[in-house]
């Protein structure tokens, strides 16, 4: 039979599923992050017990990511009281609006909740600043004022 008339399996036409990308650099985390990672792993493992095959392969992919992140996690020391560093809680003013943020690890980041990854431009600009300092963002000089270290 001609190759043109043979049915290929559906698997041959699927997009390859690459591993979840691991952020570059050290895996710095806050003091409660290891427990959050463990909870995420436990939830995924529980879900895998009753998932269908396609979902199980997605879960296995996520588990590989989270196990790697758990093993490579480095709990950062507490931040200093007089300067912004990883783990700092800060009140900032941007565009006339004040908001409280905390500088956290990549996997903990949730900007809407005020959790900013240490690798984000805002966090990189703030690290090392102190209370009442004004820092610049790319393309915006004097964009952020540090109101208070919390």
Question: How would the blueprint of this fold be written?
Answer:
Elements: E1 27-29, H1 33-48, H2 53-72, E2 73-75, E3 89-94, E4 97-104, E5 115-117, H3 121-126, E6 134-137, E7 140-149
Parallel strand pairs: 1-2, 4-5
Antiparallel strand pairs: 3-4, 3-7, 6-7
Helix pairs in contact: 1-2
In helices, the fraction of residues equals 25-40%
Q: What order do the helices and strands follow?
A: EHHEEEEHEE
Strand content: 15-25%
C-alpha end-to-end distance: 74 Å
Counting helices, strands and paired strands, the structural category is alpha/beta
Number of strands: 7
Number of helices: 3
Give unreliable regions as ranges: none
Q: What coarse outline follows from CA principal-axis ratios? A: elongated
Rg (C-alpha, Å): 22 Å
Rounded mean pLDDT is 89
Strand order of the largest sheet: 5-4-3-7-6
User: Major β-sheet, in short?
Assistant: 5 strands, mixed
Name the descriptors:
single chain; 150 residues; alpha/beta; two-stranded parallel sheet; 3 helices; 7 strands; 25% strand
Detailed description of the structure:
The strands form 2 sheets. A 5-stranded mixed beta sheet has the order 5-4-3-7-6. A two-stranded parallel sheet has the order 1-2. By secondary structure, it is an alpha/beta fold. Helix 1 runs antiparallel to helix 2. It starts with 26 loop residues before the first strand and ends with a strand. The chain is elongated and about 55 Å long. The protein is built from 3 helices and 7 strands. The mean pLDDT is 89.
């Amino acid at each position: 039979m001609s190759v043109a008339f043979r049915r290929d399996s559906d698997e041959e036409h699927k997009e390859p599923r690459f591993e979840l990308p691991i952020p570059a650099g050290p895996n710095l985390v806050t003091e409660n992050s290891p427990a959050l990672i463990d909870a995420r792993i436990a939830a995924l493992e529980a879900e895998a017990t009753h998932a269908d095959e396609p979902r199980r392969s997605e879960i296995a992919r996520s588990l590989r990511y989270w196990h790697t992140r758990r093993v490579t996690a480095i709990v950062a020391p507490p931040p200093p009281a007089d300067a912004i560093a990883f783990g700092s809680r800060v009140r900032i003013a941007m565009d006339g609006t004040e908001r409280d943020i905390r500088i956290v690890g990549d996997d903990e980041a949730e900007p809407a909740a005020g959790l900013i990854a240490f690798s984000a431009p805002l966090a990189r600009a703030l690290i090392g600043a102190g209370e009442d300092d004004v820092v610049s963002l790319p393309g915006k000089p004097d964009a952020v004022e540090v109101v208070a270290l919390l």
